[in-house]
Amino acid sequence: MKKNRIFFKDNLLSSRQVFLKTNLLFLMKSGLCLSMTLLSVNIFASGTTSGQTLNETKINFEIKANTSLKNVLSDLQKQTKFNFFYSSSSVNKQTIVGPKQNFSGTADELLAEILENTGLAFSEQGNRVVIYENVASTKNKPKFQTRKISGTVRDENGSPIAGVTVTSKLNPTYSTTTNDKGIFEISTTGNNDFLQFSFVGYKSQEIPVGSKETINTSMDLAIGSLDEVVVVGYGTQKKATVTGAVAQIKGEDIAKSPVANVTNALVGRLPGLRAVQRSGQPGADGSGIDIRGFGNALVIVDGIPSSMSNLDPNEIETFSVIKDASASVYGVRAANGVVLITTKKGKIGKPSINYSTYYGFQRINKFPELGDAALYAELSNEAVTNTWHINGRNSTLSLPFSKEQIEQYRNGTLKSYDWFNEAIQKNSPQSYHNLNVSGGTEDVKYFMNLGLVDQDGFWKSGATNYKRYNVRGNVEAKIVNGLTAELNLMARMGKTNNPSTSTPLLMAGLYRTYPTYSFYANDNPEYPGIPNNASQNTLMLMDRNKTGYNDQTEKEFNGIFSLRYDIPKVEGLYAKAYYAYNNKITDVKNYNRKYNLYSYNADNKTYNVGFTGNTPSNLNVSNLNEVNTVFQLSLNYNRRFADAHNVSGLFLFEAQEGTTNSLSAYRQFLIDGVDELFAGIAANQRNDGSSSESARLGYVGKFNYDYKGKYLAEFAFRYDGTYKVMDGSRFGFFPNASIGWKINEENFLKDVSFIDLLKVRASHGKVGDDEDIAAFQYMTGFTYPNGNYIFGSSAIPGLVDRGLPNYLLTWYTSKTTNIGLDVSLWKGLLGAEIDVFYRKRDGLLANRLLSLPNSFGAVLPQENLNGDSHKGFEIMLTHKNRIGDFNYSISPNMSWTRSKNEYLERAPSTNLVDNWRSNNSNRWKNIYWGYVADGQFQNQEEINVAAIQDDQANKTLLPGDIRYKDLNGDGIITGADQQVIGRGTTPELFYGLNMSAGYKNFDLSLLLQGASNFNAYFTEELQNPLFNNASAYSMFADRWHRADQFNPDSEWIPGKYPSTVSSGTNNNKRVSSFWLKDASYLRLKNFELGYSFDKEMINKLKIRNLRVYVSGQNVLTFDKIKYIDPEAESGRGNYYPQPRIWTAGLNIGF
Known about the structure:
Layout: E1 5-8, H1 15-19, H2 22-46, E2 58-63, E3 67-68, H3 69-79, E4 83-86, H4 88-91, E5 95-96, E6 101-106, H5 107-114, E7 120-125, E8 128-133, E9 147-154, E10 165-168, E11 175-177, E12 183-188, E13 194-198, E14 205-208, E15 217-218, E16 229-232, E17 235-238, E18 246-250, H6 251-254, E19 273-277, E20 287-291, E21 298-301, E22 304-305, E23 316-322, E24 338-343, E25 349-364, H7 373-390, H8 403-411, H9 419-423, E26 428-440, E27 444-456, E28 465-480, E29 483-499, H10 503-512, H11 538-541, H12 544-547, E30 548-566, E31 573-592, E32 595-601, E33 606-613, E34 617-641, E35 645-669, E36 681-707, E37 711-722, E38 731-742, H13 747-750, E39 755-769, E40 781-784, E41 788-791, E42 794-797, E43 800-801, E44 812-825, E45 830-847, E46 862-883, E47 886-903, H14 912-918, E48 923-924, E49 928-930, E50 933-936, H15 940-945, E51 962-964, E52 979-982, E53 989-999, E54 1002-1012, E55 1015-1017, E56 1041-1042, E57 1052-1053, E58 1076-1078, E59 1081-1092, H16 1095-1098, E60 1105-1119, E61 1139-1149
Parallel strand pairs: 4-8, 9-15, 21-24
Antiparallel strand pairs: 1-40, 2-6, 3-5, 7-8, 9-12, 10-11, 10-13, 13-14, 16-17, 18-23, 19-20, 21-22, 23-24, 25-26, 25-61, 26-27, 27-28, 28-29, 29-30, 30-31, 31-34, 32-33, 34-35, 35-36, 36-37, 37-38, 38-39, 39-44, 40-43, 41-42, 44-45, 45-46, 46-47, 47-48, 47-53, 49-52, 50-51, 53-54, 54-59, 55-58, ...
């Protein structure tokens, strides 16, 4: 896209100079690049060294008088880098008896002292310390005949877990814990007994004993809804203490959908997140998301503003959505909410290798069916007859098809050509491969990922394909004690291949070509034929080898380097420096190759060129290079005081820069064969280019406080600056605050055992936005080039004045209020999250509509004039349970949003009707205006007495035509008879139902997703058969028509649609409720059925886990629209249909 260059009268001003000095940035970048190099050396050098252990950790520790062992371990965990794991039944009952003591020594000496005489021991596993009972101290005291069972318990990575409580279900007095090697031995009551395994932080298990003598098992991490850590603005927080509106899902849930674009895996999974897929075209599926209907959300991937569509699903750790004003900490582009994506990191342990793959087929999900040659011939005859009748029958009626020809088309004597089936293949392959490796030590942790997705299109020519490679490496290294570095590197290359003709034109070509025309001259594939529209032989245009191609290659690289320094002698305080670099290069090559279409002369049996397209052959190439950087310095604090006051804070400085450069060139060719610029001729050649810069500064402050996890509060602000507006309006202060109350922590509810969580929360804040503001409007200057001036025989580019400078423009603001309720009952058996919200925006951009004299000589600039509001609610319910070997979960969610124009600038109304129809201030946005259809005329008598609809005393109307309500009763259908007839084309209500179940080694997941309160409008070819000389859809077989089309006076046969008239009558083409369809739908969006092989069997093959599965995407759709997909962007049928995808896959871990 070309961008005009701007020259300013006073001085040249770069957006970068507005905020940052070039030399300072250069030093910062150079220093960080050097640090990245040093980090690589450190990682290499320290890859085999061990971290600081318990006996190397020296501490000064105060043991309070008569305190619980649990509190001592909690305090010790905060003071050291170690995390303590233990069985509650073993630790909670222990108390350290005696006066206050001050301890000085190593951590292992302290643990040995406080565990003395408790019957407990400890085991060090990396940064985890497990407190467990010795097997020798087991409480088993058999009272009758028993049988011994032994075994080993491991975690999800195959490492032994110490301290797991193992209990007999039939006799709970039989209980023991695993030792530091994960080994246990226990007595049971016999074959009918069950062993129960439990451990803090892991999912409990119950395994039947049967005749087994050995039971080995693995435990999965169990992050319950209350303990779950969610990603919030510049940090993480326990879900139970979050006071804002935040929703989160795990990357493993996203990876269940076999889609090339991650966006399409999100629909229906989270309340408030609205995802829509408009197309199924590989590499360009028209997918998008918004939050609460606010608009395009800001997507942050590991701290970098980015796009989610090109991520590999297996590299995603968490996906969080910030929906309320707490998004303000991310700056001016966060007014519509923020999506935070974190990628996976390494974990301490031996290397874990995982490979995932699937292969499947795509099939067209829903697309209007084309009519055959017999229907086309009938419609063509009827169009001529009806037009002849409307025009007064003042000429001889001549029909294009005879009765014999129509019958021959019907019985197959004359061939009917199905252009759609000739062009589209039924099954198109799609495949995916992913390999990742993770692991680490105390010093270095790593995650490496390699992904490939390959998706073919529906064209039989094979001209459409999308292929993407993803590479990622995330490394975290401890440089010295208290100093940690992270280096995240990502590279991506995506290649999209298409024919040179755009997809909408190709789809339109399929339904515009008459089924009476052959694909090839004389049905000879060597000679593409000339269809009714001369140049639109769609089969030819789909063949990239014959007519050219449009290929796009995207290459993206980003690198993130950060340093964290734990400041000594100040508990909980650390500083962090962060630098991110992102470079995206897009190359497009569009080659239009000269081609011929042929006709056949049967007399002399020759093929003749009847049309030549793309004359001469030509080539367009373009390059877009985008570079964006983010630099942050932050100070973070997190500490607990007096075992009651939890305090955390953040202060952050952020600078963002962006540069964009584009180049393009055009050449024509006299000779085909070399599709490169150098081979082109000088005549008509074009070259162009543009560049732009952007810069923003921000200061962020954030403070969190909670008292005993009961009373919660957060205050945050962002002081932001944008390059787009003039000094004085450039910076804005955007605060937000939220509070929460965990009612279940109050004394009057503490004894209500079935309430896990009952929390109310509220937030309010202000966010700024500069998205739609054109930069530098406050400066005078010239636009160049603009128009051409002829001097002699030469055209010289000119320049024009930019117009009035705009000194008043500033960013627009939104104020958002959110009230929420979180509930969890019966240990997570039931849960609910409910939010209601209201957002009001002021200062939206508009041009003041005033009448100005011609002598004024300029257009009024934009001003902050308009305003709007959004309101809505969200509900998510959860239920999960386990019954023996069967477990299941159900989670429905629903979101409703509606928006309103509070004020919309417009010219003064000329009359009351104009004000009623066109003044959209204080009016809902998603409304559809039109005429109210009142059925169809059944006969000529009804037409004669009806209100005038055609300005010609209804002389152009026919039986079957649409009748409209005369709302004002004046006997004439005019604009004054319009009213709101529908909800618009964007859903107000989104809902989803996530279900999963597992039985032994089998697992099943289902996702139902739907939307309602919106409409689809049929237009053009879906409204009028033969529209603009097109063919016709099969739906028009059900139409009003004469009983005998060769007798213009025969009786009318009723149908669903009006009769056929060439290009349609103006009456039937009015915007009305007749063509407005309820687009509400429900989809079985995704299902997956898997089987995991027994670990005892596969472990012998050195395989950690092995799972096979089958899955489907867009499996079923239930809706009221028979002919088009309810999510399709076009109401005429020229869209690339969404695919139904069936896949079979494999997950294997070593």
